[in-house]
Amino acid sequence: MTSAAHRGAHRGARLEAVGTYVPSKVLTNADLAKLVDTTDEWIVRRTGIRERRVAAPDEFTSDLCTAAARDLFTRSGSSPDDVELVIVGTTTPDYAFPSVASQVQDRLGMRHAGAVDLQATCAGFAYGLHIANGLVSAGIHERVLVIAGETLTKVTDYTDRASCILFGDAAGAALVEPATPGSIRASVVGSHGEGGPHLYRTGLSCRIAGPAGAELAPGLMRQNGREVYRWAVETVAAGVSRLMERAGVTGDDIDWFIPHSANIRITEAVCERTGIPIARTLSSIECYGNTSAATIPLALAAGIAEDKIHRGDTVILYGFGGGLVHAGLLLEW
Ligand code: COA
Fold this sequence. Notes:
Layout: E1 2-5, E2 12-21, E3 25-28, H1 29-33, H2 40-47, E4 51-54, H3 61-75, E5 85-89, H4 100-107, E6 114-118, H5 124-137, E7 144-151, H6 161-164, E8 169-179, E9 184-191, E10 199-200, E11 222-223, H7 225-247, E12 256-259, H8 264-274, H9 285-288, H10 295-305, E13 314-321, E14 325-332
Parallel strand pairs: 5-6, 5-7, 12-13
Antiparallel strand pairs: 1-9, 2-8, 3-4, 7-8, 9-14, 10-11, 13-14
Helix pairs in contact: 3-4, 7-8
Bound molecules: coenzyme A.
């Protein structure tokens, strides 16, 4: 695991604004009980999920990401023209290429921006912020737009009851800009590639037909839920402790902890190990399920909208997922 503490009155970075988008179609636990042998009671008790959103057949990750970025710019002092780099964290791009980032750059008319997709599964938002923080703090870029978007329901196996109950579709975005001192105080990243077989997908494109109309078979997700669960609890607890150590704070100093919303029981177990009270966590699991890289911006945006997170609050964001990879940041909102 590499880590970095970012302190002092040097140029750093801050999150200027966040935006989100969720598709309108709701898939409830009762709906899933008609597809596989499960119950609302089992899903709520074992995962904390009540419902999730499903993208329309003709709605893809680039559409969700574009909508989340548009939402962000309604709350931001900056405009799309100010963006110098678009990073999209996604594991469900429309196509192998062109990238989702390039499609969003075009649709928002970001004339001065570079564009790149980042493949870090459910840790994509945290990895994107880690990289954006480095680029902005170093003075290489002034404004980096980090978007996390997924259409996991297009690659979910709806005959596998142990995985199809978990996933949903959404997108979230954050604009990273310079600040002196920076408000991102520490970050950590890590990878356990040996765990790759516990959570994987072989296909890349989510569209059945390519741009020229050829038939493609999207790979479905496969997972060993128990192994991922065990790894996540151990890894995130260790990563959060490392973040707090790097930033010189304790659990008492954390106003809000926003781990990736994969399963409410993972969050509870991490809280038990790190000493962060569960009451200080924010999650998007109940209404949206596991939306992979998008869960953290969804919970962050809701926390701001509900007047829970205030400017100056100390917040930990922690993403983890297939790879197996993880990344976290400790920042002042
Ligand atoms: N409804 C009812 N029963 C189900 C079920 C469902 N949807 N899914 C699994 N079960 C059954 C299993 O078949 C098993 O039955 P058995 O004991 O007769 O074999 C039993 O429930 C327990 O299975 P287990 O896999 O131990 O359940 P669990 O408590 O670990 O919960 C997950 C399964 C998938 C919810 C859980 O392992 C999990 O959330 N793992 C992490 C996955 C994750 O977060 N992935 C993304 C990471 S980014």
